[in-house]
Amino acid sequence: MRKKSESNGLEELEESKISKFQWFLVIFIPLIFAVAVALIVFTVAGVNIGEKAKEISAKIPFIESNEKGEEKGSPAKSDEKVSLKLEKLETEIENKEKEIDKLESIIDTRDKAIEKAELEKQQLQTDMNQLKNSQNGSKQAFKEIIRTYETMAPKKSAPILTEMNDDDAMEILSSMKASTLAKVLEQMTTADAARLTKKLTEQSSQEER
Fold first, then answer.
1. pLDDT per residue over 89-146, tens digit each?
2. Of 26, 53, 93, 101, which one's alpha carbon is 20 to 30 angstroms from that of 118?
3. Taking the domains of the chain in order of start, what are their residue ranges?
């Protein structure tokens, strides 16, 4: 009885294995055949199977999120971002250096203009001082000439003055003291004395105006 029961159990186990194998043949083999046919059709149609597989996997939420996570944490992408930031900073530094060079050039030009203006100012001051010294020297020399004529005897100075042109004679005579002038005019001829006296009077009248 026991042997009969064991025999029945073995038969049932074998039947179960045969049934599973049959199901495997019925489901798996047609599926493999269908996939093979699909690959052949896609290949003949010129469809890139790899790209198509990526598109299909991108539509699956789980796979898509994993791919994004991988891209986000990719060292290559991180290095690329760092390189772009470095390039941007280097460009900004170059621009700032150009601005600094431009400002330094403007300052240098301004400093040169100031230096040039200062030199011109100094030259003008020097010229003015020289002119003043020249004028002072001329005035001093003229005073010396007047002093000389005033110390000369009227008989000697009168002929010299009449030989000069009237403008030079008038300049000397008008600077003499009144007492000396009168003595010099007395030593001149009547015509010369009259002519020079008239001009002295006219000059005096113009100065009073």
1. 988 998 998 899 889 889 888 888 888 878 877 887 777 777 677 777 777 888 888 8
2. 101
3. 33-72, 98-149, 152-209
